[in-house]
Amino acid sequence: MKLKSISHVNSETGTRQLYDASGDFFDHSLNGFAIADHHGKLLRVNKSLAAWLQQESDTFTGLRFSDLLSIGGKIYFETHLWPLLAMQGHFDEVAVELSLASGEKMPVLINALKRDADNGNGPVVWFTVFKATDRRIYERNLKEAKTSLETRLEHEKQLTILRDQFIAILGHDLRNPLGSVMAGIAMLSRSNLSDTDQRIVQLISRSTVRIGELIDNVMDFARTRLGDGLVVDLRLTPMNPVIEQVVEELRAIHPHREIFVTSAIQEPVICDAPRIAQLLSNLLANAITHGKGDTPVKVVAAIHDGSLEVSVSNEGRRIPDELMGHLFEPFTRENHRQSENGLGLGLFIASQIAKAHLGELLVSSTDQETSFTFRMPGGTS
């Protein structure tokens, strides 16, 4: 019996301590608590909520919970939240603002639960209030980020339109006058001209071809940097005619330079023939421009282990080490070597064509020779 008595006493003591602890938790919790009757009038407000509102906890008795809120929150509470509470008995995480004694507003989240009172005096409503300052900042940052992304998206759309217009101008407004010039040159070349006039026509013809190459390079640069990159149309193509045509064009433009071709390609290659021709033309033009003028330019084409390899070599001074890592960047030119013309786009476009074919463009340079090699794996049928 003695043990039972001690147990009974300990049980009563524990219950009383638990009750005292719950009261202390209500008043000193980090969250705000409030109890209201079934009419919405406040019966009790804990000290944390009162401190947020910058008043004493006993000053709220008899007020409605909505009186603690800003004007907008009060209207929303009375027209939406209170009827919702009457219908379903609770609501969760509703964002409102408390109206502080200083006139400032504090963003909070409120939960509410309607339950029967222990004393039988009708239902009461328990309110739990959480500070939402950090959450509001987070939401505001998300909203600002969303707005920023939408603005950037609209800006990108405008840039896309500008890009398309720019490429269209290059393709139409520049090529059309150039076509007229080339047609005029063709007509003049069929006339009876003196030797001097014939040389002038040939000079104009070479310059016109060069202008066409520059337009092609600038258009490809625009597609690469402003658009979706170079697009290739892969087809089974005999390579020797492609190489021969490019070489003959460069020989016609530079009749004073020798170009030697060695091709061991017997089978067709899967590639974009016009793009490969453009790549080879750019490499040849680069070799002719920067190689020794009294030495030949060599073109070697072959298939090695199923991969296409085309190299263009010229004699001349070695490319400096500091320039080797930037050769395939746009607008890169060798300032210490005189260049006849160009924008510094030829090697960049050639490297982009190589990448579009899932290949690579390599360079090696010694005191005797500089070689650029295009290698495309899996190019044969």
- The top level CATH class name of the largest domain: Alpha Beta
User: What radius of gyration results from the CA coordinates?
Assistant: 41 Å
Counted beta strands:
12
Total count of domains: 4
The backbone outline, from C-alpha atoms, is: rod-shaped
Look at the structure and name the CATH superfamily of the largest domain: Histidine kinase-like ATPase, C-terminal domain
How does this model look, in words?
The chain is α+β, with helices and mostly antiparallel strands and 381 residues long. It has four domains: 1-27; 31-131, PAS domain (Beta-Lactamase), CATH 3.30.450; 144-227, Orthogonal Bundle (Helix Hairpins); 230-381, 2-Layer Sandwich (Heat Shock Protein 90). It is built from nine helices and twelve strands. A five-stranded antiparallel β-sheet has the order 2-1-5-4-3, sandwiched between helices. Strands 7-9-10-12-11 form a five-stranded mixed β-sheet. Strand 4 (105-116) and strand 5 (123-131) form a beta hairpin. The longest helix is centred in the middle third of the chain and has 57 residues, at 133-189. It starts with a helix and ends in a 5-residue tail after the last strand. Residues 1-16 and 335-341 have low confidence and may be disordered.
